[in-house]
C-alpha cells in the first residue's frame, strides 16, 4: 500500500523550493533597515520631543515619513536675504538620501505651498538625521517660488527632483 503525504505538508515545502515566502536576503535587509533607529546618533538627535513650529505643523501632519521615520524639527523664520519672505526647514529622522529624500521633501513642499504663507516662502530645506555624512542627505530649494510644488505633472514624472539641490 502506498503512503500518501498530506498536501498541507507538501505545499510549504514546494513553496520554499520555488523561492516563495520570505527569503534570507529579505529577512536580513529588514533587520538591518530597523537598526538605523538604534544608533547613538539617533538617540541623541531623534528621541527628544519634536520641535515643530506651529506654522508648519499641518505640513508635518500631512506627510508620512518612510522607514518608520518622523519629523524631529520644523522651523519657520523670516528670511535673512529677502525682506517679507520666510524660510522653512525640516529635520527628518529617517535613513533617507538622494531621490528618496527628494520625494519626502517634495511632499512637504506641496503642503507648504498650499499653506496660507506658501507664497511667502523663499527657501525650503530638508535634512535627514542623524546622518550628516551621507551624500544628498541635506537638500535645499533656494528658489522656492520659481518651482510649482503642486503635486501635478512634475510630481508624477519626477521633474520635481531638479528643484532639490544637495548641500552635502
Give a structural overview:
The chain has 168 residues and is α/β, with parallel strands linked by helices. The protein has one domain. It is built from six helices and six strands. It has helices spanning 7-17, 24-34, 40-46, 57-62, 98-114, 153-157; strands spanning 51-52, 70-78, 86-93, 121-129, 138-141, 165-166. The longest helix is centred in the middle third of the chain and has 17 residues, at 98-114.
Could you say which overall geometry the principal axes of the C-alpha atoms support? globular
* Alpha-carbon distance between the two ends: 73 Å
Category by helix and strand content: alpha/beta
Percent strand equals 15-25%
Rg, rounded, reads 22 Å
Q: Gist?
A:
With about 170 residues, this protein is α/β, with parallel strands linked by helices.
Walk me through the topology.
Layout: H1 7-17, H2 24-34, H3 40-46, E1 51-52, H4 57-62, E2 70-78, E3 86-93, H5 98-114, E4 121-129, E5 138-141, H6 153-157, E6 165-166
Parallel strand pairs: 1-2, 3-4
Antiparallel strand pairs: 2-3, 4-5, 5-6
Keywords:
168 residues; six-stranded mixed sheet; 6 strands; globular; disordered N terminus
Amino acid at each position: 500500500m502506498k503512503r500518501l503525504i498530506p498536501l498541507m505538508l507538501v505545499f510549504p515545502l514546494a513553496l520554499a523550493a520555488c523561492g516563495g515566502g520570505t527569503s534570507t536576503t529579505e529577512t536580513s535587509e529588514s533587520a538591518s533597515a530597523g537598526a538605523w533607529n538604534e544608533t547613538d546618533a539617533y538617540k541623541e538627535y531623534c528621541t527628544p520631543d519634536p520641535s515643530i513650529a506651529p506654522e508648519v505643523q499641518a505640513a508635518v501632519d500631512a506627510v508620512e515619513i518612510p522607514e518608520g521615520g518622523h519629523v524631529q524639527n520644523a522651523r519657520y523664520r523670516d528670511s535673512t536675504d529677502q525682506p517679507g519672505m520666510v524660510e522653512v526647514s525640516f529635520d527628518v529622522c529617517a535613513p533617507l538620501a538622494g531621490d528618496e529624500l527628494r520625494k519626502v521633501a517634495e511632499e512637504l513642499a506641496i503642503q507648504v505651498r498650499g499653506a496660507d504663507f506658501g507664497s511667502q516662502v523663499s527657501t525650503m530645506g530638508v535634512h535627514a538625521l542623524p546622518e550628516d555624512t551621507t551624500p544628498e542627505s541635506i537638500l535645499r530649494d533656494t528658489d522656492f517660488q520659481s518651482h510649482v510644488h503642486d503635486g501635478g505633472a512634475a510630481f508624477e514624472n519626477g521633474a520635481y527632483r531638479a528643484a532639490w539641490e544637495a548641500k552635502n
